[in-house]
Amino acid sequence: DGGITQSPKYLFRKEGQNVTLSCEQNLNHDAMYWYRQDPGQGLRLIYYSQIVNDFQKGDIAEGYSVSREKKESFPLTVTSAQKNPTAFYLCASNYLGSHNEQFFGPGTRLTVL
Amino acid sequence: QKEVEQDPGPLSVPEGAIVSLNCTYSNSAFQYFMWYRQYSRKGPELLMYTYSSGNKEDGRFTAQVDKSSKYISLFIRDSQPSDSATYLCAMTPYNNNDMRFGAGTRLTVKP
User: Fold this and answer.
1) B46 at the A interface (CB within 8 A)?
2) B30 touches chain A (CB under 8 A)
3) N or C: which end of chain A has fewer CB within 10 A?
4) Cα(A110)–Cα(B80) distance, rounded to whole angstroms?
5) B24, β-bridge pairs
6) What is the pLDDT, as a whole number, of residue A99?
7) What average pLDDT does chain B have?
8) Which domains does chain B have, with CATH numbers?
9) Would you state the pLDDT for residue A58?
10) How would residue B95 be classed by pLDDT, with cut points 50, 70 and 90?
11) Contacts of B6 in chain A (CB under 8 A)
12) A81 vs B97, higher pLDDT
């Protein structure tokens, strides 16, 4: 089955720790995205990548880092510099040059203890 | 002013009702409009996609775009309890992956 997978589903972090969220897609999509979702707010873009070994900051990149070593994978690291990391994190992907609709993974809920 | 405004609700309707969900936007560069449905603790799933002004129908769902008024709507006919979810509007400029989302409207359809 084609799709986007995210792991883990739930993640708990102690203050001061870095954690990495996984995102994998087997849709052969060119572009991948990371969003953060907080209650009562729309999705906010953290980082995106349109091609391997290249990525761009979104609206709220501070305290996060990403890599894109393979087309299928786009892991997100939440660093200790992120002051309020508790949120629902969503990964998405799409084809470049498509009509822009993005397809989402199931999400990772990160809680800072 | 936010680029995309969406009434967060919550909205509660009886089963069988017609539901109207709306978003307004300020950026006239937006050309593609989407509606996503998100069940609790799940990722959003694409429900409807439209480009031009006018109506697009898919089963019980109708998406409406009025570019002159910068206003989009999603209508759900014969609403079912399984339609209970949060509905997110989203939009992008032409040939640009910079997607902007509304805050989402939480809908509950009561049996």
Assistant:
1) yes
2) no
3) N
4) 32
5) B5, B71
6) 62
7) 92
8) 4-110 (2.60.40.10)
9) 94
10) low
11) 42
12) A81
